[in-house]
Every structure is written in C-alpha cells, then in structure tokens.
Amino acid sequence: MYDYDLLVIGSGPGGQKAAIAAAKLGKRVAVAERRDMMGGVCVNTGTIPSKTLREAVLYLTGFSQRDMYGASYRVKSDITIGDLLARTAHVVGREVEVIRHQLLRNHVDILGGTAHFDDPHTVTVHGAARGDHNTVTAENIVIATGTRPNRPSQVEFDDERVLDSDSVLQIKQVPNSMVVVGAGVIGIEYASMFAALGTRVTVVEKRPSMLDFCDPEVVESLKFHLRDQAVTFRFGEEVEKVEITPRGTVTSLVSGKRIAADMVMYSAGRGGVTEELQLEKAGLSTDDRGRIKVDDHYRTEVEHIYAVGDVIGFPALAATSMDQGRLAAYHAFGEPARELQSLQPIGIYTIPEISYCGKTEQELTKEAVPYEVGMSRYRELARGAIIGDSYGMLKLLVSTEDRTLLGVHVFGTNATDLVHIGQAIMGCGGTVNYLVDTVLNYPTLSEAYKVAALDATNKIRAVNMFANGSSDESPTPDDPPAPTSPID
Ligand SMILES: Cc1cc2nc3c(=O)[nH]c(=O)nc-3n(C[C@H](O)[C@H](O)[C@H](O)COP(=O)(O)OP(=O)(O)OC[C@H]3O[C@@H](n4cnc5c(N)ncnc54)[C@H](O)[C@@H]3O)c2cc1C
C-alpha cells in the first residue's frame, strides 16, 4: 500500500491541475514544492509577475492614454521600481494564497522542499532546514518541475547589472539604458515594458529577425512601435562578452560593436529543472536541455510516471500546462478524457500586445491553400477611438474555397482576449458567414471581426464578379440555397 495514489512534483500550472484533478476523482494526493515557490514559476517569477508588471507600467506611464492626452501624459511622473513591484507583490501574494487554499480544501497534502527519487515509487522531499526531510511512496507520480533560465557560462551574472528573467524582478531602480539579449517572447516582452518606462533599450538577437512564427505584418507593426520608443534592434549579431564596470555594463558584440548600458538582461532560452530529481533512480533520463520525453498521454518511459508542463518542452505555456496536468491525472487513473484541441492561441504580451490562432499567410501560401485577407483597423472602430488605440488591427484569413476561417491575427489592445472569438469559430469549423450574419455589441473591439469579415467577403465577391464578368455575386459553397416554391 502506497502513502499516496498520486504524488506531484512541482506546483506550477501543470502540477496544480494534476493534483486537483486526481483529488476530484477521490484519490489521495500530495504535491512537493519548494516552500517559497507555491504556484511555480508561473506565479512567482514568470507569467503572473511579468504580466502584473506590464499592467503597472501601462497604468503608471499612462501609455495607453497618450493618443488621447499627448506624449507627455503620465499618471505618475517619477515612477520608481517600488511603485511597479508593489503591485506585483500584491498579485503574487494573492495567487499563492488562492492556490494553497485550493489544494488544502481538496485535501491535497503539501510537502515543502526539493524532491528527488529514491526508486520509481519512492521520493524524498528535503526542506531548507537540516534534518527536515520526508520520504513518501506513491502509486503514480507526475513530474511538473518546469524550467529555469539558461545562463551562458561565459557571462558573469551578478543579478544587479547582469540579469536574467528571474532576477529582473529584483532590480533596485528603473534603468536609463538596457541591453536585452535574445528577442524571443520573454526578451521582447521585457524590452517593450522597459521601453514604455522610458529606458533606452537595445535588443541583440543572433537570428536575422524575431518572432518568426507570427504574422510578419504584425511583427513589423510591433518593431515600428518599439523603434518609436527608442528601441534599437541589432539582428544577426552575437554577444562576445559583457563587462561590469563601476558605471554600468559594456556589451561587446562579435562584430566589434560595443554597447554601454546600465543593465543587461539575458533571455537566452530555458532548460528543464531535472538535475535535482535523480531521475536515474526512477529509470528515467532527459535530453540535453533537461527535458523529459512523454507519449500522447504524458506518460514517460516508466509506466506509472508522467511529466507535464514546460519540462516536456513545446509549447511551454501556462494554459497548456494546466490541461496537460489534468489529462495526465485522468490517464493515470483510467478516467475517460478527450485530447486537447490542436488549435491553440498564442499570446505575446508586448506593448502593444499580439495574439493569433490558426495559420499564417506564409503557411497557407507554402501549402498552396487559397485564401483572402479581411482587415480591420482599430482606428476605424468607434471603440478604438474611444480608448485611444489608433494602431491596433485584426486580420482574418478566409478560405476562398469554403469560406472557413483559417487564421486570425490581432495586434493592439485586448488582442490576447479578442483572439478567442476567432478561435471558437475556427474550432467549430465555422465560416466567415457567421461573422457577417451576426450582430455584435457596439461600440466594441470585437466589432473588428465584423469589419474584417465584410472586408474579406467583399474581396471574394469582387474576384467572383471580375472572373464571371457579371455584376452579381456568384454563389459560394456556404451560401444558403435559394428558397424553392412549395409547388415546384
Ligand atoms: C517571464 C515569463 C513570462 C511568461 N509569460 C507567460 C504568459 O504570458 N503566458 C503563458 O501562458 N505562459 C507564460 N510563461 C510560461 C509559463 O510560466 C509556463 O509555461 C508555466 O509556468 C509552466 O508550468 P509548469 O507546470 O511546467 O511549472 P512551473 O510554473 O515551471 O513550476 C515548476 C515548479 O516546480 C518546482 N520544482 C522544480 N524542481 C523541483 C523539485 N525537485 N522538487 C520540488 N519542486 C520542484 C519549482 O520550484 C517550480 O515551482 C512565462 C514564463 C516566463 C519565465
């Protein structure tokens, strides 16, 4: 008889949801987590603090109101790091409480400390104090230990002037200048936050471009906005060394350029947190980035051990990790479960934000899928004018063969929320006709869907008219059949 039916290692989104799902099935469950990390990277150093910081930046700088009140508009003129981090600490504290309470009211035991395997069914959890350890056995185990930022060995991180995405949350003052190394999602989100605060940011990226998986028009718009806020991009450039000087830092690039800045933030990828687990004692191993391989049911090579969340790799997002956790628990206990929908949204919380779902124009062109683009610009929407967003846009990609939605790409205010309308229509196999024939609240940003849908269908109609040489719209596969007379 084991101590637990399920032991979860890590309390981030994946671990939490695995534990709760198993508890709801009436199982005896425990979660092992370091005492100061309840809620995982997500709550303590990743998603929640970075998104709260962004909200504080947007509010205190008055950034989103400047279209309306002018470029010098500020809610607070001298924004301190204390102003920013107070909000973050408040939200993180609340989230930790919510998670702890949820686990406890579902009778999930919390084992405080760092866990390692003793054998495939036995785990010891070491607390911070000497002699504080707890050895438990479990029938099933879910590993949800997440990732940590990579630190290139040739760079000296002092966590004051040379930072990563964890230590950036502990800076003592808002820098006047900053180098961000790596233009991935995390790097570019922080670059845009500091730029909005007035920091002169230089982004160094070894690839020739950034966010290649997004719509290029959207990425161009983001780059335009960031350049407008004094962000300099150094694409195709590699960092040779970073020196810490009494005045700040000097970053030397392989090309010979040198960049002086108060701080350097590295965002050079993340590696799985697996080294403390002593996986070999459970019969498991990892790839060279510390990640664990799983099958479609999140099962590792060892039958009763599952792994979920960032530690298994792509897409390494909080929402996906939650569902993986829930499904792993269901699979472990033979509970029937449907697999996740393959259509998943991507949200990038830059300022302004980006979100998309479905295909990009490049993908459709490569796959030779004919499509039409429907475009809506926030500045032409009443809600866009009211909120002072003159740059936002929503782009629909519509199949010209059957009028289904193939992709939706949004840039600007509420992009990460708006995308879900398109996702829902696509997920249900809906066509652009749904948007044309649906009444939406006015004035809203959702109206962008209606405008883009009409734009796309007008273009499709124009092609048909030109092709047929007629002045009428030719019927499309989804048009309702003409009504027939009862006496026909
Ligand atoms: C700066 C940043 C911003 C992000 N923004 C977003 C965003 O906007 N949207 C989004 O969807 N995702 C975002 N992410 C990604 C998101 O945070 C992760 O996808 C998510 O946290 C992964 O969840 P997880 O379940 O893998 O566990 P994690 O949240 O990674 O937590 C893992 C936990 O396991 C614990 N652990 C590790 N080893 C042990 C051990 N041996 N014993 C006990 N406990 C252990 C750790 O202490 C940690 O608390 C962001 C990430 C970062 C870094």
From TrEMBL:
- Could you say which cofactors this protein requires? FAD
InterPro entries in alphabetical order: Class-I_Pyr_Nuc-Dis_Oxidored, FAD/NAD-bd_sf, FAD/NAD-binding_dom, FAD/NAD-linked_Rdtase_dimer_sf, Pyr_nuc-diS_OxRdtase, Pyr_nucl-diS_OxRdtase_dimer
Chief site of localization: cytoplasm
Show the segment(s) annotated as Disordered.
467-488
Q: For the FAD/NAD(P)-binding domain, which residue ranges apply?
A: 4-325
Q: GO terms for molecular function, please?
A: NAD(P)+ transhydrogenase (Si-specific) activity
Which keywords accompany this UniProt record? Cytoplasm, FAD, Flavoprotein, NAD, NADP, Oxidoreductase
Taking every annotated instance into account, which residue ranges of this chain make up the domain Pyridine nucleotide-disulphide oxidoreductase dimerisation? 345-452
Task: Specify one Pfam family.
Answer: Pyr_redox_2
Q: Could you say which EC number(s) this protein's record lists?
A: 1.6.1.1
Please note every region of biased composition (Pro residues): 477-488
Indicate where this protein resides in the cell.
Cytoplasm
Task: Please give the function described in this protein's UniProt entry.
Answer: Conversion of NADPH, generated by peripheral catabolic pathways, to NADH, which can enter the respiratory chain for energy generation.
Q: Which family does it belong to?
A: Belongs to the class-I pyridine nucleotide-disulfide oxidoreductase family.
Q: What is this protein identified as? A: NAD(P)(+) transhydrogenase (Si-specific)
